[in-house]
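Each field is set out as follows.
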Amino acid sequence: MNSVHSDSPPPAAAEPADDREDGPRVALKILVAGGFGVGKTTLVGAVSEIRPLRTEAALTDAGVGVDDLDGVAAKTTTTVAMDFGRITLRDGVAIYLFGTPGQERFWFMWNELSRGALGAVVLADTRRLMASFASIDYFERKGTPFVVAVNCFDDADRYDPAEIQTALDIDPHVPVLLCDARRTVSAKQVLVSLVEHALRLAGGASPRRAG
């Protein structure tokens, strides 16, 4: 008796499911604000898993007498619209980062950028703490959760978070963190701290730490 023979190939093994095909399970919008030259563009670039969208323009004579370059005289460009980046944490949580322009003449854009934001990171420079006041005041008035992240520049004096909190006259419940905006791990921890802070204020449970 002849055996039945088939030239059809065996069925292929099923490919493992890739969660990325379905997109993030949770998408969060976070603003990165602060004064001119405090490191907003640097922080977004340090954590973004995609090539950051940057809207930088060269500083020109038109900004003389308008832009405050005190302490950042070596800076040659400025953000004129926003920086944009994305980072995906564990459990399918994607954070979309929007860096705000720091110069006063571009503050009119903050209302649009802040729509739907979970919270904000206010970057500060201890050499120019006054440059952080406008951002802090803005988010306090809007009731937007925020943390203050002190970007520890190499030539800046070091202060304890409690001292910075007193100098900025912010509520004790607002976290004050020390960070290096150039380093991915440090910048990422700032974002996680903000998410935890915002969820605490909303009465939710803190998420697990990102790995």
In short: The chain has a mean pLDDT of 78. The beta strands are 26-34, 53-58, 77-88, 93-99, 119-124, 146-151, 176-179.
